Amino acid sequence: MIRRSAVSFFLGSSAIWGISLSHHASAASAPSASDAQILALQHEMQEMRREMSGQISVLRQRLARAETHTSPTAANAAQARRVAAAKGQPLPDSYAHDIRIGDESANTMNLLHKADLGTPPSDRGVSSSWASFRAATEKEEAVHMGGMIVGFPGGRPTISTEDGMYAMSIGLAFHEDIGGFMGMSPRRGESKGDFAGLTENARRLRIPISFRYKNWIANITPDFGSSSHDGSATLYEANLNYAGFHNTIITAGYFQPRVTEEDSESSNEFEMMERPAITDMVRNIAAGDARMSLGALHYDKRWWIAGYLTGQSYGARSAGNVYDSQTGATFRVAGRPYVSKDIDVHVGLSAISAFKMAQTNAAGGGARTSVAMSEAPEVDLTTTKLLSATVGNVGSMWSAGPELGFRWKRLVLKGEYYHIGITRGDNTAGSVGNVSNAGGTVNFQGYYGAANYTLFGAPRSYNIKEGAFSAPGVDHAFDPAHGYWGALEISGRYSVADLNSGLGNSVTAVRGGQQTVWSGGVNWYPNRHFRFMLDFNHFIVSDNSVAQNIMGRHGNSVAGRIQAAF
Question: Where is the signal peptide (predicted)?
Fold first, then answer.
C-alpha cells in the first residue's frame, strides 16, 4: 500500500512537472503574470517530492525492523507481498496483517518480558566493550525510535544510538535492611553498646550512571547509603574505563579494585547480606570502595587476572588531618582448572599491600602512622564493633591468601583464608589506643567456608568477567497463576577473624579479639530486579579493650533486606 501510493504520487507529480515545463516554454517569448505562480508551484512540488522521499525511507527502515522480529511464516508472507507488488498482481487479504508498520507493541512487550529474566544487574557502572554492548543490546532486544535505541542490556535502562557508539545508562542498587539483636545483655563492667532489638538502615543506595563513546566509558556512582547508619552521602566510584582490547578493561579514577573472591562479586549477588569479616578487613588495606586506582583486569573462559596501583580513598583528606597519602597495590589471579556442564572448580590467589602508609598529624605535633581495624558481627545494623584493634608506629601492611570454590549442579561451596602482616617502623611519636609503639611484626588472620544451594530457578553459575560465582538466574518471573515463582536459594557460612597477635609478649602483644560467626540465610528472587533476603547470625567475640567487650560477648541477630537492582 505504501509503495503503490508512492508510485502514484511520483507519476502524478511528474506529469504536473512536465505540463508546467511545456507551458513555460510556450510562454517564453511572451511573459505573462502567471509565470510567478508557475514557478511557485514548481518549488512547492520539489519540496513535496523531498518530503515524501524521506517518509518512504523511514517507512522502509521500520518495515525491515518489523520483518526482523516477525515469525518465519510472516516473513515469508512479507516477501510474497513484495514479489506480487513488483509484478502488479493483486495481494490476498490474508496478507493484510502480516506486517504492522508503525506498531511495535509486540516488540516492546517481548523486550520487557526479557528484561525480567536472568541474574541481577551489577551494583557498579558499565565496563563492557563496544562490541559486547552492541551484542547485549541485540540479545535483549530494544525499541528503535528516530535513530535511537531504548533497551535493557544487562537489565539496565539504556539509551544509545543505532550503532551503539554513543550511549548512556542509569542503574540502581538499593538495599534496605531491617532487623535487630537478641541475647546481648552485657556482663558487669561492660557497656551495653548499640544493639537495638529492632532497627533499620539504608545499607546501599547507589545510582550508577555510565556514559559511553565507543570503547570509552565514564562511570559516576553516588551512594546515599551507609555501612552502619543512614543519613550520609558519599561517592562509590568515579572513573574512566577503556575496553577496546580483547576481554580487557583499563581503569583510572575512584574505583573498587577487585581483590578476594567475595569482593569481586557484586553486592547484588552476595550469598549472605554482608561479606565475611576477614575479606572486608583485607580489602580495606589498599582497596575498598572509591579508592583512587590505576590498573586493569583481563579475563578468559578459564582464567582471570587483575592488578591495580592504589592511593587514598575518596574523602580521606576531608578532615584535614592527613598530609601524606597512602600508596599501595592489589593483585588477584583466578582460574578454573576443571569445567563441565555440572561442575566448576575455582582456585585463586589474592594479595594486597599498603607499602607507604598515610601519615596523620599527632596531638603534640609531628606525624604518626597507625592502623585501626574493626568489624561488626557481619550484620550492619550497629555502630558498635566488638572486634577491634589499633596498631601504632606502622611502616607497611600486607595480606595474601588462597581462594577455593566448587560447583556441582545446584550446590556451590567456597572458602578463603588470609594472613595479615603489619610491620612497625621507626616513628615512635603519638602512641594510640592501648597498643605500645614497640617494634616487631603484628600478625592477624581469618578465614571462612560457605555453602549455597538453589532450590528452584537457574542455579548459581561461574561469571568469567568477575572470576567469581554469580547469583541464581530467574527463568520465569514471579507469576503464581502459571506456576512461576522466580528463584530461591539457601546459604550457610562459618567465619573467623582473629585480631590477636603475640599474646605471649606483654610488650608487643595486640589483643583485638577473635570473632566467630555462624550464619544461615534464604534469598528469594521474584525476578532479576528484586530480591528479598533473611539472615540469622550467631556470633562469639573474645575479650579485648573495647568498652562493650571487656569480658567477651556473644549474641544473635536476625535481619532482612529488600533489594532493587537495575
Answer: 1-27
- Check: CB of residue 292 under 8 Å from CB of residue 326: no
- Grid cell at residue 197: 532489638
Which residues, including other chains, have CB under 8 Å from residue 180's CB and lie 6 or more apart? Answer: 195, 196, 197, 198, 199, 381, 557, 558, 559
Contact 238, 209 (CB under 8 A): no
Residue 55 belongs to what H/E stretch?
Answer: helix 35-68
Q: Is residue 38 part of a domain?
A: no
Number of domains in the chain: 1
In this structure, how many other beta carbons lie within 10 angstroms of the beta carbon of residue 479? 13
Residue 156, all three cell numbers:
539496565
Write down the residue that cell numbers 579493650 correspond to. 545
- With beta carbons less than 8 A apart as the criterion, state whether 535 and 159 touch: no
Rounded to whole angstroms, the Cα distance separating 531 from 541 reads 31
- Sign of the C-alpha dihedral computed for residues 23, 24, 26 and 29 taken in this order: positive
Which conformational region is residue 314 in: left (phi greater than 0), alpha (psi within -120 to 50 degrees), or beta? Answer: beta
417: containing domain? 130-565
